[in-house]
Automatic annotation (TrEMBL), chain A:
It catalyses: 4 Fe(II)-[cytochrome c] + O2 + 8 H(+)(in) = 4 Fe(III)-[cytochrome c] + 2 H2O + 4 H(+)(out). NCBIfam families: CtaD_CoxA. The gene is ctaD. It comes from Cellvibrio polysaccharolyticus. One of its GO terms (molecular function) is heme binding. GO terms for cellular component: plasma membrane. GO terms for biological process: aerobic respiration; electron transport coupled proton transport; respiratory electron transport chain. It is found in: Cell membrane. PROSITE patterns: COX1 (PS50855), COX1_CUB (PS00077), COX3 (PS50253). This is cytochrome-c oxidase. It comes from the Bacteria. Residues 576-834 form the Heme-copper oxidase subunit III family profile domain.
Automatic annotation (TrEMBL), chain B:
Keywords: Membrane, Transmembrane, Transmembrane helix. The chain crosses the membrane at residues 7-28, 48-69, 81-106. The keyword Membrane applies. This is Uncharacterized protein. The keyword Transmembrane helix applies.
Amino acid sequence: MTQQSLSFPAKFHQQLEKVWGNLSGWGSLAAVNHTSIGARFMVTGMFFFLVGGLLAMLIRTQLALPQQEILNAEVYNQVFTMHGTVMMFLFAIPVLEGLAMYVVPKMLGARDLVFPRISALGYYCYLFGGLIILSSLVMGIAPAGGWFMYTPLSDATFSPDKGPDFWLIGITFVEISAISAGVELVVSILRTRAPGMTLDKMPIFCWYILAMALMIVFGFPPLILASILLELERAAGWVFFAVDGGGDPLLWQHLFWLFGHPEVYILFLPAAGIVSTLIPVFAGRPLVGYRWVVFAIIVMGFISFGLWVHHMFTVGIPQLAQAFFSIASMLVAIPTAIQIFAWIATLWTGKVTFSLPMLWITGFLIIFVCGGLTGVMLALVPFNWQIHDTHFVVAHMHYVLVGGMFFPLIAGLYYWLPHYSGRMPSHLLGRWAFWLTFVGFNVTFLLMHLTGLLGMPRRIYTYEAGLGWDWLNLLSSVGGFIMSIGIAMLIIDIALHFRFGRPAQHNPWGADTLEWATGTPPGSYNFASIPSVSSRHPLWDNPDLPATIAAGEHHLATIEHGRRETLGTDPINGKIRDITHVPSNSWIPLQTAIVIAMVCLCLLNKIYWGALAAAIVAFIMLFRWSWHNGAHPVAAPVRDDDPVNPPLHSRTFDGPGLWGMVVTLLSNGTLFLSLLFGWFYLWTVAPNWQIPDHKAFSISGLLISGVSLTLAAWVYLNTLKRLRQKNDQHLERRLWISTALGLFHIALLIFIFAAAELQPRAMAHDAILCVMMLYLLLHSGMVVIATLLQALRVRKGYVSRTLPYEPMVLQPLWLYCLSIYWISLAVFLLLPQMRGLS
Amino acid sequence: MTHPNHPLQLIWGLTLWAIWFVAVYGGLSVACAATDWQRESPLSLNNALLLLATVATVLLLLWLMKRCWRARHPAAGHRRFIAVVSAALYAASALATIAVAVPIMLLPPCV
């Protein structure tokens, strides 16, 4: 802390606000700050929740009585499809990500997330993607095939309208947002914790969010690939899922549920994180079994990826395979139970205060346990066969998702509301909202179990009278409206509290975690100085921490340099490694998202040249974005007074960008593995799979191209080795050589692709080869252009032996390109030619 | 990365379980597609290979568990935390492998 800031703390805070604050007026659209972006995610998510809720009310109105014609079959199909789509993709995930974005940096003792501009891009991708999907509903051409979009119902033959296109393109757009948030959260949690915050001292909420973010990173790519393949099939006629050409509709189900089942846990984990955070606060004691809960989080994160086939028990798979997935489905109940026992033990041994958030937590415990029990029932194959596609499944799903996600979410909103607004909610309105929602929910969905057991199928728009379903449906609908009234009261309470709420005292719930050491509402910089941490409960140990933080008595209490800075720490021991400078306000994320939205709109309207042009512009903008990084004058220009101990991250070999690249490539690698899975699946299972007699590509040409790529990568990696030895002699020339070799590789690859006589519209085999080739070209193109830019940056003085960071970030990308090239050559081309396999 | 107190120990066990799961499920599907074993009993070559993979995986997981458990004592703080939680995770991975593998002894592979 400088003498000047000690003497003038108010001035110091003003300086911090000037550096970290958003621009005013329309300039707030250029905001990247995690508090603003997190709040925007949540507000937008709640808007979509209201849309999804209105659609649910339409469903319940239609089903309240038999043989109603309020909605016809086509409109009803659109309504239930959009209800599921909006709730799952546009409400549940984004709102939880928004909450995580808002809370996590503050809990970690950081001033921002590490890639705030990516957060902003993610938000705009989500907003525009959501609006694109919603526009289809307004125009009456919404998708109508269910939120899982099964083929062949969703292919061009059975759904010739644009509804599935809106779903596929819009959802892919939204998923860019989800993955970007996932990468952001993983790297931030691993690299920007407060000094001393080792893994065993990390707030339990951050463990949950780390697991959720990693699950997003690995769980979403299968659906992104499936969406791309289905859109290619619909728009260009390439064969992937059509049986005639050697495809298989079940491939869609596998890829969808490879995403879809982990998705349930992606929603549950952050919600459970809220529960594990709130229960100790309201019980007034630490969480019982912290280590067991961490254990349970990790087990759940993994096992939940091994359950996807339990959504497909009725499609016809061998008994042994069904048994694998049945047992895995039951196994996942064990880590869930560990957490529930930990929560009950914490409550049992504590002195519980039943404030509003705790009320919602209690509702969660009751509803979620019921949903979990029916989940174990559904894991049993014979029972699953009996009630498959009935309202029993609808009831189970809502018990798990509303109980396991919505109730904890509202508990969390009430808990952190005073943090955001500085005011307390109304206990009277809040309690009414809870009880109406709780009673309404159970009346709606508890009865639905019975309706399902009595044989009422899902997704029917009406039913005959006298089947025994009439009174159950009527009561379900009444319950649905009671629940709606409860949610309306909740919204009224939250809206009114901003104006009429009682001002909150500091840390009103007596919490233990660092987010309550910021101001309430928080400043844009969170912490005027960043404290060291020595336990899991910093505020219980040292209640004066907020005051000493505000007084600038801890780390990084300087701002004269004008940079946005937070501490970069070691992911294992929590020691300070560098000063991470994070980007400030920028229009680039918004501009890029607008251009990507144009790509989507052009694709929807089949203006393919426009889509191509917009995609090229988007890539140019992304590379321009990368140009304004590192030592560039607008980011962190080289200065004589640059800190050296710890150094700025751009002066090291191991900053957050490298970690971000690795995590992104893990996600990308999952997409590639999904493509390999599709290839092997069709090869072994599709009834009409064929491998053509002729060779698809010139193998010798591909070998030469591969050697060129290998040489390019070798030159690049060798250059990095020299850079690590502080040798930057001929650095620019070496990067140019690598670029030239890479360009030769790409040119040869394009020539080979153009010369091949592939028939992607006739054969799934050739269609997958085309996708593989485009994937390789895209990646080789990216790495070569990025290397070219590095050469230019060396010339500009932004990269050198004292500024070695950026070339290090590209290293994993080079290795990735090399790997996928040779794996593709071996698996897609050489393996089928081996004797006996074709 | 291989030290018993390294944080990556927290994920190796279940990663091995996941690889085993994919190999067994994928191997089963490929074997059923490539052979004509639909009528065979559980006592088939197919099941024997699946069991062999299971036993090897479980033994490896148990050895890794023992290694982490032994590393907990000299360590303190976060190093001890990682060793203990990792040992439990290896044990859970071994149990998950055994549990999922039980049907291999009871059911024919391709029916």
